Amino acid sequence: MPEETNRANSFNTGIAAEYFILSQLYRRGVEAYVSQGNKKAIDIRVVLENEKAISIDVKAVRGYSSLVVNNVKPKENHFLVIVIYNNKFEDVNISPDVFVVPSIDVPAITKQWKQEKRVMKGIWHPT
What we know:
The chain contains one helix and eight strands; from the N terminus they run αββββββββ. By secondary structure, the protein is α+β, with helices and mostly antiparallel strands. It has a single domain (3-120), classed as Trna Endonuclease, Chain: A, domain 1. It is globular.
C-alpha cells in the first residue's frame, strides 16, 4: 500500500475512533469536548459533575499487532483509550473493542520498538 494511502487510512481511523468515543460519552450523559487538529496531546476533554476535568488520548488501529503511544504522557486524570477495529473498520455493524487505561499505567505496558514506544499485542492482554 502506498505511504500516502497508509497515512490517510491512519488519519481516518484515528478520527473515526475519536468521534466513536465522543459519541459513547454523550450517550452516557457525559459532558465531553473533542480537541481539533492533528498534532494535539489531548483528544477529548471530559468535565465531571464535580467540575473537575479529565483528559483522554484516543489511539486506534484497524488490526492489532501493536499501537504507537509516543505522545502519551503519564499524569493524573489522563487516560489512554485504545480502540481496536479488529480488521472490521469498514463494517459499521460491528463495534470496535475499547479499552481504557489510566495514563500512569501506560509505561508498564509499553516497549521500545525501533524509534517508537508501542503497546505490543503480546505484552498487553486486555480482559
